[in-house]
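Table S2 (text version). Query chain:
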Amino acid sequence: MEKAKAVLGNAVVYVEDPQFLIDNTDAVVIATAWPQYEELNYTNAIVIDGRRIKKAREAKIYEGTVWA
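Corresponding structure-token output:
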């Protein structure tokens, strides 16, 4: 997160708990393959998955993108 802050500054809101974001946003875009994203609960979320996170396929609405 510190690297992102160095680039983005205060232009975004930083949150330590990704599950909190999933539970409190309209939709989730997954753009990184960090392993901790495999452990989250997506069942009530709308997910646009650009990284093939298997657990995200349990989402209420799921769309995988950029599959090669």
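Notes on Table S2: Strands lie at 28-30, 46-49, 61-64. The two ends are 29 Å apart (CA to CA).
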